Amino acid sequence: MTIGDVAIRIKDVSHQFGEPGDAQFVRVLQHASLDILRGELVCLIGPSGCGKSTLLNVIGGLIRPSSGTVEVGANLIHGPLPREIAFVFQENALFPWCTIIDNVRLGMVFQGVSKDQHEDRARTSLEAVGLSEFMRYYPEQLSGGMRQRAALARALSLETNILLMDEPFGALDEQTRMILGEDLSVLLARTAKTIVFVTHSLGEAVFLADRVAIFSARPGTIKATIKIDEPHPRKPGFVTTEKFAQLRNQLYGLLHDEIRKGVEFTAVMGPDS
Amino acid sequence: MNGQQEQQERWLSRCLQIGFVLVLLLLWYLGTTYWGISGILLPNPVMVLHDLKEVLGSGEFLPDLEVTLFEVAVAFALSCVSGLALGYLISRSPYLIAVFEPLLSSVYSIPIILFLPLFVLFFGLGPWSKIALGATISFFPIVLNTIAGFRYVDRIFITAARSMGASNAQMFRYVLLPAALPVVLTGLRIGFTIALLAVLGSETIASFAGLGHRIAQLADAMETVRMFAYITFAVAIAAGLNALVSSLERQAKRR
Q: Which of A61, A85, A93 lies at the smallest CB-CB distance from B160?
């Protein structure tokens, strides 16, 4: 497994909701193309409604694009590929009727992991995110940050090569986000997974990513990518360096006009779906 | 400390509830013993208690209780099976929900007891007319809650399960069912309560046997004391059954 192979090939993906002429018609993605390398962490960043989450769902096989293709390894994506791809969603997608460890186990039941491995894998992944002591708790008994750690543990236990994360820290406060970001960087440096990470936060993108893909306003397309050349795991001190500030500013410059367009578009059309 | 306060408040309200019932019983006793209320309209509670002992001791209530319980059990079983199955099927299609949900809710809101004469005409004075009425009435809360329970399962749970490769059977067993369960169980409890109500009520109107029948018969014979004894017995049975169903519901929800 050498860095350099293409893990995910996104070719000319366009997507629209509804039909032209409908009141609900929205063109969300237009000719988005991107190659994501094996073991790479790519952040998708862009204005609200630019289709970055839609693209993530297309990669994961949860949405079929109106046109274009996604290839994962040798597979052309038609639907979910649970043995290859795991998700961490923005919202709390843990099942509230199961304890934390049962949530992790259930993922493996769905994926078809043989039963004798459940206990071990669940414990290992919960330990990795620091939730060993809380595995008998129900999701509602945990804080938002801990719930997202648990969701991450569920995804890790599936041992997929690819991890898709849809603003996993979007609903958390700034400090919790920072800590989770640091822990994530340490954790992922060990796993050699290919990761696509959708975020709103410039700092988060620069801190986590090997490469950041910047979206244009809706209909979204990938306008530019910038490389973040800094070894993993990232040190907390990275955020105070000149390099970090420069990269963040470069990103901000690329994004600013698009965000303004996005906001104006949203003001005319109403909030995005 | 907060928990302690809550505990205290709970105790206080329990005491008030019990006190309220005791005051009513006391008023009943005083009214019939000292204030000259006619024994035919309202018998003395001491005499009622005496008769109740006799009824329980002799076991004369057994045949009537058997009939009533049989009717409730069959009526509830019928409405459970049909309500759960139809409710689930309807909930699978937004189109079917749009058609049937308003239809079922509007039928639920009419007094279905009015169909009792019709059911007596169809099924006779025996148990089957009560079963038909009980099943019809309790079908509605069960089917409506089943639709509601399965319809409002959060999309994110379905999407998450699908992304992890859940099959249709697994989706039902591990996601849809547990998500819908609390609302469905509430429907079952309401269904049971009103099936019991419908059976007892219709027994007092037109029947050959059952607790409701016995109560109506005693009223006709002006045997008010014994009638009250039977009413007390029927209330105790109903309260016991409802408490049982409620505790089953709570237990299933906790899991």
A: A93
- Tell me: do B99 and B214 sit in the same domain: yes
Nearest by CB to A110, from B170, B179, B181: name it: B170
Nearest chain B residue to A92 by CA: give it: B156
Question: Domain for residue B96, yes or no?
Answer: yes
Distance CA A46, CA A199 (A): 8
Are the C-beta atoms of residues B89 and B96 closer than 8 Å to each other?
yes
What fold, for A6-84+160-269?
Rossmann fold (3.40.50)
Look at residue B144 and tell me if it is in a domain. yes
Domain boundaries of chain A, sorted by first residue: 6-84+160-269
Res. A103: pLDDT tops 60: yes
Interchain pair A95, B175: CB under 8 A = yes
Structure token pair of residue A263 = 């906001």
Please state whether beta strands A211-215 and A41-45 pair in parallel, antiparallel, or not at all (unpaired).
parallel
H-state helical runs in B92-108: 94-108
Reported as a pLDDT band with limits 50, 70 and 90, residue B2 is low
Domains in chain B, number: 2
Domain that holds residue B1: 1-37
Question: pLDDT-based confidence at A269, cuts 50/70/90?
Answer: low
Residue A95, CA distances (Å) to A100, A114, B175, B236 in order? 9, 21, 8, 40
Q: How far is A161 from chain B (nearest CA, A)?
A: 14
pLDDT digits (tens, 9 = 90+) for B61-97: 888 889 999 999 999 999 999 999 999 999 999 999 9
CB pair distance less than 8 Å for A82 and B255: no
Facing residue for B164 by CB, picked from A82, A97, A98: A82
**B231-B232-B236 Cα angle (round to 5):** 115
Asked if B164's CB is within 8 angstroms of A158's CB, the reply is yes
State the complex-level ipTM.
Answer: 0.86
CB contact under 8 A, A111 and B165: yes
Identify all chain A residues contacting B156, using CB atoms and an 8 Å cutoff.
89, 91-93
Decide if pLDDT at A202 tops 50.
yes
Q: Express each pLDDT in B135-165 by its tens digit.
A: 999 999 999 999 999 999 999 999 999 999 9
Q: Is residue B155 part of a domain?
A: yes
Q: What CATH number did the domain enclosing B106 receive?
A: 1.10.3720.10
Q: Is A89–B162 a contact, with Cβ atoms under 8 angstroms apart?
A: no
